[in-house]
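Researcher: Let's continue the batch. This sequence belongs to Carboxypeptidase, and it's 411 residues. Same format as the previous ones, please.
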Amino acid sequence: MLWVEQPAGTGFSQGLSYETSEEEVAKNFLGFMRNFEDTFSFRNKNIYISGESYAGMYVPYIADAMFSAKDKTYFNVQGTMIYDPSINSDTVLAGMQVVPYVNAFENLFNLNDTYMSSLRTQHTECGYADFLSKHFVYPPRSRGPMPSPPKTRNAKCGTIWSDIQQAVTRVNPCFNIYDIATTCPVLWDVLGFPGSFEYLPKGASIYFDRADVQKAINAPNVKWAECNDIALQKDTSLYSGLDGGPLTRVIDQSQRTIIAHGNFDFILLANGTLMSIQNMTWGGSRGFQQKPKNDFFVPYHNEREKGSLAASGVMGVTHTERKLTWVEVFLSGHMVPQYQPSAAYRQMEFLLGRIASLEEVSAFTTQPGVAQPVLGKGAGTYAGNGSVPSRELFGEGEDRRVRLVTDRGFL
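Model: Same format as before. Here are the structure tokens for Carboxypeptidase:
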């Protein structure tokens, strides 16, 4: 597995960034990969590319460039996976969807009734409610592209998202745009991220900024940051998720493509990504023909170390059509591998083709002997010890029960 900090100027990477487009970024990345593969005899490998957030631009453009190179010795791309990706405009990914999102998670925002009522009114007056009712549907109503988001002379329509952020921060000053479930006290991270604002407690340090760490990993002695404004200061490329864009081409040419999204992410909203998908054409059709509703299952596992606890069971909603897989991850913020590492590990197994589906109820391929539930339908099908409704917590879905089994019978 290879972690790459790019474009130049990101993290420990050296030099200055002169790119002004994703096409230039992809060209330079392919040059790096050729040099890397030649230097370390890494040619003729299957390649899978993954990233999160703005990698929703980087990954499709890089993968598209690799397919265009038609050189499987260096660029034999099999699949891609992008988390909470930036694939469209802020209006589509956040602005139009933010009021329904706040409604859905009203208890976590804790905004008063008067303000909530004004938000709903604003959502309607800005034309967002009507637009979503007409165009955010399964299957898409038209074979042609959606119209552009509604334009309005009311400046407040363009600031709904930021207005909500300011309002909720008054109620919860520790509100985290990357994870709406965060409350006070202010948390910090060894990577210095994520959070609505920078915070480093007295005496603490960013892990990769420590001189001893940089020496141990043979890294340059520079100030390290997970995100900065040095690289790609101006991006002139079209959004990757526009119809006919690089993301659609990559889906058609890959074995599988995964778009995953944490449902506690506020900076980019899951339904905004889904609406973008409904405006994309791939595999000969536009959008998903059915609304995602199937259970995403994360295997039960043996790790019980308190420092590395991770979830198990039904942890989201997934759907696959024409080689594109969508998965919404429950109880996860923007950085799914950080907030729900076991879910991300399962998604990687699927990306690599080690399991047939994210709906599959089976053990991790690296822990084949761990007992897993057996799903059944109908009230009381599996009554007794170990039985739980799989979707009761989220108030939707069939009445299903699970039981834990081993090769020798019930647990």
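Researcher: Any comment?
Model: Residues 1-88+207-369 form a domain with the Rossmann fold fold (CATH 3.40.50.1820).
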